[in-house]
Amino acid sequence: MTERDMKKLEDMKKQYETAAMSREQEERMKERISEAKLEKRRRKRKHRIRNMTAAAAVLAVLVILPNTSADVAYAMNQIPVLGKLVDVVTFRDYQYESERHHADIEVPELTVGGEELMNEDAQTQENLKKTAGEINAEIQKITDQIVAEFEKNMGDEEGYQDYIVKPEVINTTEEYFTLKLICYQGAGSGSEWDYFYTIDLSSGERLSLKDLFKENTDYITVISENIKKQMREQMAADENVYYWLEDEEVPEWNFQAITDETSFYLNENDEVVIAFNEGDVAPMYMGCVEFVIPSEVTADIRK
Fold first, then answer.
1. Contact 170, 95 (CB under 8 A)
2. Strands 71-75 and 205-206, how do they pair?
3. What's the gap between Cα 147 and its chain centre?
4. Closest CA to 87 of 105, 106, 114, 60
């Protein structure tokens, strides 16, 4: 390894260990995950929904929290159909703005029902309701913890913080419904982490990675090796790209393999996309990274 390479690696390690981002990087991330932020600061209660042909009116009731200037909006409007059987409502819209503290936390809730549900068999209907309830409970727990942490940190008179939570419906098809929950925290440095929820609309159950593949196939190794290949190719093509891979200096950070718990979703081409949060497989400055697994790689093992 050359002296230049060693210096580059040391700089990357320092960035990873401090989890720091430049203000420019932080602002770019905020813009990417919060397109509605500026509108909400102007007090315009509008929701921009991507990949839809129509928009729904929002009914919101504002409640002033005691001893704070935060607005909490409970919008129980129904958004136009985003999947065959699954709709989304904004259950809670938590807003807070001060000189040092900002929160823009939109809490989604999945609902099932309508004529489409009646066309399904009883077991699928039951599964859909159960799955939606479990996902809603998980999202509620995540966002409640974020709000609690935000309010606790407001006691720090010297610090500042910026919390953003936004839902995004991605690549929903006749077979699958996928919701992505994007979470961002900025406090000196910034970090993003995401959650993915995919429902198999044919069964009504939450889709896991193993459900996509034939039994007794080593999809873990197949996908992991392809990710490593993509990592090497990206690093060879761009000196600013770096992954923890085959690094003798920090072997404990090296990417080995995905697990059944690794986040994923299916894109518009029905390809598996593996998603990692910041710091999982690369220095923090790389952000959340995703790897699209080509169809030909999994063709022999997909169901």
1. no
2. unpaired
3. 17
4. 114
Beta strand ranges found along the chain (DSSP E): 60-64, 71-75, 86-97, 101-112, 161-169, 176-187, 189-200, 205-206, 263-266, 272-276, 289-293
Q: Residues 287, 192: contact at Cβ < 8 Å?
A: yes
pTM of the predicted protein model: 0.75
| Token output for 129 | 């309701």
Residue 37's H or E segment, with its range, is: helix 37-41
Pick from 187, 49, 157: nearest CA to 108: 49
Q: Which of 104, 83, 82 is nearest to 92 (CA)?
A: 104
Q: How many residues does the chain have?
A: 303
The pair of three-digit structure tokens given for residue 28, joined into one six-digit string: 């770019």
Strand partners, 185: 163, 191
The mean per-residue pLDDT over the stretch 178-185 comes to: 96
Q: Render pLDDT for 196-246 as a digit per residue (tens, 0 to 9).
A: 999 999 999 999 999 999 999 999 999 999 999 999 999 999 999 999 999
CA angle 291, 107, 130 (to 5 degrees): 80
Nearest Cα neighbor of 84 from 168, 156, 178 is 178
Residue 282 CB burial class (10 angstroms; 0-12, 13-18, ≥19): buried
- Express each pLDDT in 9-52 by its tens digit: 555 545 444 444 445 545 555 555 444 344 433 333 333 323 32
Strand-pair category, 161-169 with 176-187: antiparallel
Q: Take residue 124 and report the two structure tokens written for it.
A: 């699928």
Residue 193's closest CA among 145, 254, 244? Answer: 145
Closest CA to 287 of 21, 103, 44: 21
Name the DSSP class of 79. Answer: P
Contact 235, 246 (CB under 8 A): no
pLDDT at 23: 52
E strand intervals along 207-285:
263-266, 272-276
Provide the 3-class DSSP secondary structure of residue 140.
Answer: helix
